[in-house]
Amino acid sequence: MNNISNTTIEDAIKRLTPKPDPELKNNLQEVLSFRAQSMPQKSNKLIFSFGAKLTFTVFLSFFFLLATVIVIAQPASAKEFIQALEQCTLSINCYQQWSETQNQYGQEIEFVEERSLDNNDLLSKGASLEGDPMYEEILIDLGAKLISDENGVKTYKMPITNHLTFYDSSEHTLNTSQLDILEVSAIEELIWGDVFSDDERLTSYFFRLDNIGITYEQYDTESILTAAGAEFVEEFDGGLYYKWDTNYRIEFIPDTNLISLTDTRIIATNPMLRTDSTKFIELIDSLKLVSNY
Amino acid sequence: MNIFNKNNEARLIKNAINNPNEFRYLYELYFEKIYKFIVWRVRTKEDAEDLTSQTFLKALDKLETFNFKKNNSLNSWIFKIAHNLIVDFYRGDNRNNDEISVDVVPDDHTSSLEDEIAFNELKKKIAQLPHNQAEVLILSVIHEMKNKEIAQILNIKERSVSSTLSRAKNNLKQLVTN
């Protein structure tokens, strides 16, 4: 141990750490390649196309999440944005093109956000925007409800409300909380930038159990899930995975008291589809029922 | 995260999820790091190689579940897999720290015989530390990880990393001195 004690422990550990055998690296690489080849590949084209549409949807969704009410003051910019999307063909290059576009218009989002946050009156009333059929179509898809139509200005109210805390944005706190369900995928796309489309996020419903009174401090959530018919499968990386109603997978993340529901048949066949919302509501109802006993 | 920013890492992960053959780029990035972490924590070179292999096979299988919101970075995610496998390894074999001994000299062609002996000696000492101290020490010293990242990997509180590291260093110095 002489040559260790003559130097610091840290230096000794660094200096003495052996490198892996190159043969191991090559052999393992071969095994991984073999394994990878047997795994299904997903269609990039579809994902890019869908990702672009989704991210545009996210653009608007986030837009409303930030302020609930936003007047689109720069329609020309938005149209340029749509034009850029239309030019984004179904090719591999589409991905890079989309990223640049998104970065560019990410600045626009911040600009509008500042304007809207300055107008507290509008914030409390609902979304107002100048008529653009494409916007309307997307807004309706997102669940927006038309509240008024005056002088060509339509006012919408967005049902997505009280879950901004999910991405820790306390400076954009919203007041309303009518709807408990949040499709996290929309927000996460913007949090992390780029077009990082995790198929699981696109197909799953997310739900914070606090919204139905099942707080982590007061309830044994794992028992509630079991009582609601969920069968524990495995624990992995901070998440507890359950099988539910034959074809559904529930993930419970204790740290955030969040559950997600995913139809495993969709993951296996067409990740562009969404899990059936009626099953999600059924699960929530079951959890409510069980937790009341 | 020293090499890639979050967006680039996200792109590599996304590509690997869409096409598992692309996993090789992630493998290139992490292979040596993971081996160097595990080799200090297990008894033999063969065990280190086996657990390194298992880490990457599991990472490939589970990559679809990776999620930035939950996992923060691929670095901490993949080290966490390695950490869990080490825990399972000792749990499964019903071993404990006291039973760890180094009986195989590492076949590292770049090391001198003196260094190899020193490595084995030092590893014996580190093996006498509690598991959490040994892992915090290795992650901090070899991989120069920040406390926050170490806390995520080992599933402990960030503020306890500093004290654990301090205890590990003190204990190890005593063991080496004695």
Automatic annotation (TrEMBL), chain A:
Keyword annotations from UniProtKB, A to Z: Membrane, Transmembrane, Transmembrane helix
Organism: Candidatus Dojkabacteria bacterium
Transmembrane portions of the chain: 46-73
Domain of life (superkingdom): Bacteria
Protein name: Uncharacterized protein
Automatic annotation (TrEMBL), chain B:
CDD domains with a match to the protein in the record: Sigma70_r4
Matching Gene3D superfamilies: 1.10.1740.10, Winged helix-like DNA-binding domain superfamily/Winged helix DNA-binding domain (1.10.10.10)
PANTHER family listed in its UniProt record: RNA POLYMERASE ECF-TYPE SIGMA FACTO, RNA POLYMERASE SIGMA-70 FACTOR
UniProt domain RNA polymerase sigma-70 region: residue ranges: 26-95
InterPro entries to which the protein is assigned, alphabetical: RNA_pol_sigma-70-like, RNA_pol_sigma-70_dom, RNA_pol_sigma70_r2, RNA_pol_sigma70_r4_t2, RNA_pol_sigma_r2, RNA_pol_sigma_r3/r4-like, WH-like_DNA-bd_sf
Source organism (scientific name): Candidatus Dojkabacteria bacterium
Family designation: Belongs to the sigma-70 factor family. ECF subfamily.
Domain of life: Bacteria
SUPFAM superfamilies to which the protein is assigned, alphabetical: Sigma2 domain of RNA polymerase sigma factors, Sigma3 and sigma4 domains of RNA polymerase sigma factors
Coiled-coil stretches: none
A Gene Ontology biological process term: DNA-templated transcription initiation
Protein name: Sigma-70 family RNA polymerase sigma factor
UniProt keyword terms in alphabetical order: Sigma factor, Transcription, Transcription regulation
Molecular-function annotations in GO: DNA binding; sigma factor activity
NCBIfam families from the UniProt entry: sigma70-ECF
Residue ranges constituting the RNA polymerase sigma factor 70 region 4 type domain according to the UniProt record: 121-171
